[in-house]
Amino acid sequence: MCLVEIEGMWKPQIACAMPVAKNMKIRTNSEVAYKAQESVLEFLLTDHPLDCPICDQGGECDLQDLSMKFGSDRTRFTDIHFEGKRAVENKNLGPLIRTEMTRCIHCTRCIRFASQVCGLDVLGTAGRGGEMLVGTYVDKMFLSELSGNIIDLCPVGALTNKPYMFKARPWEINRANSIDVTDATGTNISVNYRFNRVLRVLPRENEEVNQEWLSDKGRWSIDSLDIQRLVTPMYKCNDCLVATEWDIVLKMVSKQLKCTKPFDIMAIAGPYCNAETLVATKDLLNVLGSEHTYIERNVDYSEAVVDIRASYSLNICMKNIALSDKILLVGTNPRFEAPVLNARIRQAYMFNECDVYVIGPKCEYNYHVEYVGQSVKDLSNAKKYLQNAKSPLIFVGIDQLQTPNAVTLMRELIRISNSLKKSSDWKVLNILPKEASFAGALEAGWKPGGLKAIQSLKPRVILSLGADDVFRQWSPPKDCTVIYIGFQGDSGAACASIILPGSAYTEAGGTFLNMECRSQYAQPAVSPPGKARYDWKIIRAIAEYCQICLFYTDPDSICRRLAQISPNFVSCGTCQKRLFEDLIPQLLANDSSDCVGQPFDVCMKKLKEYYCSDIYTSNSPTMVKAQKAVMKMEKSPYCHV
Amino acid sequence: MAVRFAGALKELRIHLCQTNQQSAGVRDFIQKYYVGLKKENPKFPILIRECSGVQPRVWARYDRGSEKSASLTNLSSNDVLSTIKQLVK
Question: Is residue A142 within 8 Å of residue A202, measured between CB atoms?
Answer without folding.
Answer: no
